[in-house]
Amino acid sequence: MAASRHGYCGAMRRARKWCARAGSLIVAAGLAAGCGTGAPASTSAWQGSADRTLGQALSGLGTARVALRLEAQDRAPHDFTVVTVTDAIDTTGKEVSGFQVAQPPDGLHRANAAVNQALDDAMSLLVDVRIALASPGVDGAGAGQLIDRVDALRKKLDDLDQQVQSSPASVGSP
Amino acid sequence: MKKVFEVALGILTAIGGFVDIGDLVFNAQVGARFGMSLALVTLLGVFGICVFAEMSGRVAACSGRATFDLVRERLGPRMGLANLVASVAVTLLTFIAEIGGVALAIMLVTSISEVLIVPFVGLLVWAVLWRAKFSVMENVLGLLGLGLVVFTVALWQLGPSWGDFVSQAATFDKPGKEDWPTYAYFAVGLFGAAMTPYEVFFFSSGGVEEKWTSKSLGIMRANVLIGFPLGGLLSLSIAGCTAVVLGPLQVDVGALSQVALPVAVAVGKIGFAFVIIGFVAATFGAACETGLSAGYSIAQFFGWQWGKFVKPRQAARFHLVLILATLLAIGVLMTGVDPIMVTEISVVFSAVALPLTYFPILVVANDRDYMGEHVNKAFANVLGTIFLVLIVVIAVAAIPLLVITHMGAGM
Amino acid sequence: MPPLTNRLDAPWLDAALHLLDRQVVDVDGKMVCNVDDLELIEGAGGEMAVTGILVGAAALVPRFSGRLGNWLRATWISLGAQYAARDVPLYLPLDLVEHVGSDVRIRVPREGLLDRQPASGPGTAQHRMDDFLGMDVVRDGERLGHVLDVRLQPRKQESRMLVVSLVVGRGRPGSLLGYDRGDFNGPALVKWAVTSLHRHSHLVPIESVRSVDWDAGRVEVSGPVEPLRTS
């Protein structure tokens, strides 16, 4: 290494310069994205984050659906299905609360409220599923009812997501 | 039966690379979101790790030098130190995550709190590193880790449309909902996971532990050619299972419990038992692999005695590193950090450390001082060069992709 | 492990390529240390020879050259301010070395082996190989490059290896890989890259070295130099 010490010194200097540049770029990108400020997001950023969060809710409900079927058919230990839905509540909840504390664009307050309402519905349905699973446990009929509710809500979330992507301004208007 | 155990090192190494706690979730996530459209990346990774593990194993067998010896000899102390810092950081992060992963796997079937399980698991891992014979460790964990083959069985039971799988794998395309940078991020993650540097640290040092000589090259190659493809098969099976069961429900896999769902759907409770055994053994095995790898690389860089082939008191500094690593892991996990998050980050960062590890192996495998008559043939050199170029490209792309895709969440 | 070629039986041996950073193994196969640096003794007549292996933080830390190296070194010393000779490395005399190959094998067990580096004898000056490597080489006022490696003549029966020539070239990375010394077989791409980076490397016989300025890090050369053999 020492054999080419001077070459490396140059390389290190360049690397340090590069690091400094990269660092300032990241900081700039962070500021541009509005990290840590209460400023409203741009419409496309809001759409993106609504899409992610609705997707996470769909995912959580999908997981709950599989867990319900397993429990009803007695194909997995009871503790496991409960853990699965608890995990789903956990991950979905994190994403949902992240979305709900962000400031929506000024023109989209109504749309934001509609999305929030849907997300809340998803969360409370997940909690219902977990409570039913954990105790007293579900039988075939009970699981069927819950699965129907899950499917209906998943359909609603899916439609909402598509509307958010195609015409956000119309979301939530009567 | 003895022959079966001779390939345990390869199997355990591959388990740590392909189906450790982060990869279990990562593979499942890939399957649910991308179907089999990234299968070729996994196959490419298997191919790449086979090429370099064979080289590092050959160097270890012919000269008794494990990989981090080569790193310092060929890159010098300064670049060697840079690699040491990067590799040990990645390896320790993974080690921490694996101990958390064992706890997560146990929590799937019990409702004991993580805070109670983690110190217990940490102590158990340390006890294995301290007391257990290397061969016992690799045989038991390698064999139990094979419980994950139940994913292959489950995929068979689920009876997917194999034609669809093949066409998804063979065409270079992504599902419509995803964007290209996210696709690239997952490709880099899969490739980086397949080629994580601690695999060659562990494999080459394990060869020294097993006292390979140039007569053991056949056994070494059997380890490579059985272990890593098996790891790749497990990884593809997991992706396939989630593609069938969770993909249509648009589930984004983020927890270990979701990974186990398809097996329960396909095989029921017996399959589920295998999954849990496989999860625990694979994460425990990966914990041993990464813990030892951290000790191996630090000891080799500084020239200390290392290894489990000598008594702990003869390799005191090496064992001190293992003790400190275990304490660190327990301490970090007690803060309640999510182990899966930790490995997903470390996989991408390990992609950055790859070139500095694989380049010295390629060079030394051509050195007659080390290899005698067993220097690389043209075939190994051509493959090695191609993968090295690929590795450099991936190392450059990894961090920018991590940033612009929000860790794969989408742009 | 059957020993492969022993570099001590070869006509020459390069300090950085074949010796520095290698693992030292004792007579029972136990690991002792790494070759962190080499002791270089300049005799009264100006002849130079490697006489011992330097070991430990005091030898290794200065090799992380540059700002990081200086900081590490100061930190290392301040961590043990009360110790005398904090900067003096541990030492392994060369006559204990039996074999130089992929590792450096010594003929005694490791217990109690390493002691502080002794002071040099009268009329001789003590240096470190790492200080020699990287020096500027000037031939009749024209810069040739840096000392990339130091070629030694191994004599098994003696406790020192005489410096016979210097490998001099542009200060570029890759000289540690050995491709410029021509005893490698591939891979073609790496070989091509390294040899083309080092196409201006020379071998300077020690007889052509006029003076070595250790403080300024400068080697004055006059007389003939030969191009480095690359096969």
Automatic annotation (TrEMBL), chain B:
One Pfam family here: Nramp
One of the record's GO molecular function terms: manganese ion transmembrane transporter activity
Membrane topology note: Multi-pass membrane protein
Family matches, as InterPro entries: NRAMP_fam
Superkingdom of origin: Bacteria
Major subcellular site: membrane
Record GO biological process: iron ion transmembrane transport
UniProt protein name: Divalent metal cation transporter
Cellular component GO terms, alphabetical: plasma membrane
Regions annotated as coiled coil: none
Compartments where found: Membrane
Keywords, sorted A to Z: Membrane, Transmembrane, Transmembrane helix, Transport
Transmembrane segments: 7-28, 34-54, 75-96, 102-128, 140-158, 183-203, 224-247, 259-284, 318-341, 347-366, 378-404
UniProtKB/TrEMBL annotation, chain C:
Protein name: PRC-barrel domain containing protein
Organism: Nocardioides pocheonensis
Lineage per the UniProt record: Bacteria, Bacillati, Actinomycetota, Actinomycetes, Propionibacteriales
